[in-house]
Amino acid sequence: MTEFYIIRHGRTFANAAGLKQGTINTPQTYLTDEGRAQAQLLAQNFDLRDFDALYVSPLERTKQTAAILNEEAQLPVIEDKRLLEISYGDWDGQPNDELMNQYPELFSTFVKDVRPEYAAVAHGETFTHVEKRVQDFIKDVTAQHPDERVVVVTHGFTVRSFAASATHAPGLTILEPENCSVTKLIVEPNTLEQHLIYYNRSTQGF
Q1: Which of 30, 96, 116, 154 is deepest in the core (most CB within 10 A)?
Q2: What phi and psi values does residue 8 have, to the nearest 5 degrees?
Q3: What is the DSSP string of 46-62?
Q4: How high is the pLDDT of residue 68?
Q5: pLDDT tens, 6-64?
Q6: Residue 83's closest CA among 147, 33, 156?
Q7: What's the rounded Cα separation, in Å, for the pair 33 and 37?
Q8: 3-state SS class at 4
Q9: What is the pLDDT of residues 122-147, one digit of tens each?
Q10: Among positive and negative, which fits the CA dihedral 153, 159, 80, 115?
Q11: What angle do CA 51, 55, 56 make, to 5 degrees?
Q12: Which class for 193: exposed (0-12), middle (13-18), buried (19 or more C-beta within 10 A)?
């Protein structure tokens, strides 16, 4: 059995400003002091020395988070583009509230996030495409690390896609997790059977 521990990066300036970060990688999307503190708190409760591999998204906010978590363990850091955040296309970097006002039919007003239909208008990445690249990542990493424990540092929608992959949950059934929360997924190496053990667990959960 391969164990995946999937971590969302710490809070960023764009998170604080209510912007859709997507795949932009400017200083606006780097960790704030609060985000660094979140990662440091998680590091105190989540010891990477107990793990076998560390995979990260290539964006700076995930690499900053991983560096803080990995300070003691010094695991080799493996970057993988399949862990990138969803690309919101033309909407990357735009204020979420303004987009909701302009395109109310493409948002859930209940959870204040895009519906799957947004992609055609924003020229963005579809929900199913993110889930497909996450599935490909799970398959490849499970083959490389059977019966090992793997840490993944990635983004909110990507974490949600790991959970959706295991549970087959459609659309916005599963919502994005909090910054620096941990989600655990187990995978059977021979059959690739997946189970979601927990989702969006805070530092207090360890």
Answers
A1: 154
A2: -85, 145
A3: S-GGG-SEEEE-SSHHH
A4: 97
A5: 999 999 999 999 999 999 999 999 999 999 999 999 999 999 998 999 999 999 999 99
A6: 156
A7: 6
A8: strand
A9: 999 999 999 999 999 999 999 999 99
A10: negative
A11: 135
A12: exposed
Structural tokens at position 44? 């105190």
Query: Of 111, 112, 129, nearest to 120 (Cα)?
Result: 129
Residue 205 pLDDT exceeds 80 = no
Question: Is residue 77 pLDDT above 70, yes or no?
Answer: yes
Joined together, the tokens standing for residue 71 give 């300070």
Which residue is it, tokens 């906010």? 61
* DSSP collapsed to 3 states, 110-161: CCCEECCCHHHHHCCCCHHHHHHHHHHHHHHHHHHCCCCEEEEEECHHHHHH
> Residues 170, 177, 20, 25: what is their CA dihedral angle, to the nearest 10 degrees?
-120
CB of 75 within 8 A of CB of 145?
no
pTM for the whole structure: 0.95
Distance set, CA 78 to CA 52, 73, 112, 140, 201 (Å): 12, 14, 33, 13, 24
Q: What is the Cα–Cα distance from 32 to 16, expressed in whole angstroms? A: 9
Residue 83's CB is within 10 A of a number of other CB atoms, namely: 25
Predicted confidence at residue 170, as pLDDT, reads: 87
